[in-house]
Every structure is written in C-alpha cells, then in structure tokens.
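hiii, so i know i said id send this last week but things got crazy w the move. better late than never?? heres the sequnce for the chain we talked about at the cafe, plus the structure i predicted for it. fair warning i was half asleep when i ran it
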Amino acid sequence: MGLRFVPSLRARAPRAQSPRRPYRIAGLALLLAAAIGAQAQFATPPGGTPITDSSALKPPPGAPVAIVEFSDLQCPACAQVNPVLKAAVAKYKIPWVRHDYLIPYHNWSPNAAINARWFDLKSKAIGSEYRDQVFANQSTIYNPMLLRQFTTRFALSNGLVLPPDVDPQGKLNAEVQADTALAKRTGIRHTPTVFVVTANSKGPPFIEVLRPEEQLNQVIDQAIVDTAPAKSAKPVKAAKSARP
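okay and structure toks below
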C-alpha cells in the first residue's frame, strides 16, 4: 500500500498587513478626489457651452470682473435678459462686453448691429443705449424699414442725423461679421450666452450664467470675493517691558 500525503490540519496564521498600505490608499484617494474636484470646477455645466477658444472670455485690462455677452438684437430671449444685465452692471459698476452673434434667419439684426457700431463711434454710451432701446422696442420692429424709422428717431433724440448709409465702406459690417466668427470660435451655439469673467481670480477664470435672472448676482458676488486682493497682516508691536 503506497504512502498518501495527508495535508496538515493546522490553520495557517494570517499574513500581517503592512501598516503603510491603508495610508497609501487613502493618499491616492485624496489625490484622485482633488483632481476630480479641480476638473469639475472648470467643466462645462449641464446644458452649458463647450468652450473651444476662451480668448474672448476675459475682462478688459484693469478690470477684475466683467460680464461678457453674445447676443443678437432681434433675439427675444436676449431682449428678456437685457434689463437683468443692465441692472447688474449699474449695481456692481463692472464692464459689460457685448459681442454680436448674428442668427442667420433674422432679417434686420445685421442692420441693427451695424447701426449700434455707428452710434459707438459717436459715443459708447449712446451705442449702448441704442442696443438697450432696440431690445426694449423689439416687438414693434418687424422689418428693416421699421428698424430704419426707429433708428432715425433715436438718432434725432440724441442730437444726431442718421446718414442714408451709415457704413458706406463696409467697415462696420466687417466688425460685426468678425464678432460672429469670434463667437463661433468660442463655441457659442445660441443667444444670449452670458459669462462672468475674471482676472487673477482664486476661482474659475469664467463662469457661464445659464439663468441670469436667478444666478447672475450670486455669480458676480462670488467673482468679486475670488478677485479681492489678499489683506496684508498688520505688524505686531512688541510689548514694552515693565520697568522695575
């Protein structure tokens, strides 16, 4: 009868686990969480614009916070948001950078954008007011002829005479088309598209405001906090020694 191997019934002692492994795993988890958090901070919000070129999403030189808007003067949604943006600019005293993004099937917005730039040449304030008034009276402007009548009245109310052709050399139209091309490079897909942009911020350099009526002031408040200069610590005076 041959010999049989009988396995030992003695239980093996469990191998001691290195005390370094839990800490190593915890460290990796923290790094991963930080990476995800950093990525989420700059990620496109749900329903937001996938940015392909952020060069336009900066405040003017010297301004820590600004609003950047892409709009079409014939867009009803832009007209609805315009008073909200105007009120925020008045409240916070921040720049408002307005870009044209022409909607192809709109029949008078290209002329309105050119008119606005003609008024800009007279005064930036008048050009901005013209845009505001176009939005406010948008429902009464059905075609280029009515736009012309409205623009003539606006010019007269500001002591100006609207020439028969405000852009004889096509320079203003080229600027409008360049703005629309910039919007497309940025990744803009609809109007209005509104951003709060910052310089030297502790937070994101730009944030898209999907619902300006509800979110704009809150986003601006946070941007102001994120761009506030750090307060320098006051030097501590040495205590005077008591004389005997």
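btw Helices lie at 20-41, 76-92, 109-122, 124-136, 144-157, 171-186, 212-227. thought thatd interest u
miss u guys!!
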